[in-house]
Amino acid sequence: MAFYRKNIGGLHQAMRVALGGAVAIAAFVYLSGAVAWLVAVSGVGFALTGLVGYCPMCAMAGIGRGGAS
Description:
It is built from three helices and no strands. It is mainly α. The protein has one domain (10-61). α1 packs antiparallel against α2.
């Protein structure tokens, strides 16, 4: 039983996971201190939306499966 409806497709999910992971890794390679942690957490959050298949911002904008609201 899901409490949400997936609003991003398979390719979109894969791109979010790949880019989110890359941003998180790059944050620690190229940045330091609190900025690195902030960027890494943002990247992980982006990747998690891909893993789950639901993006709250896309839902608010009406973007995704099912068309605009």
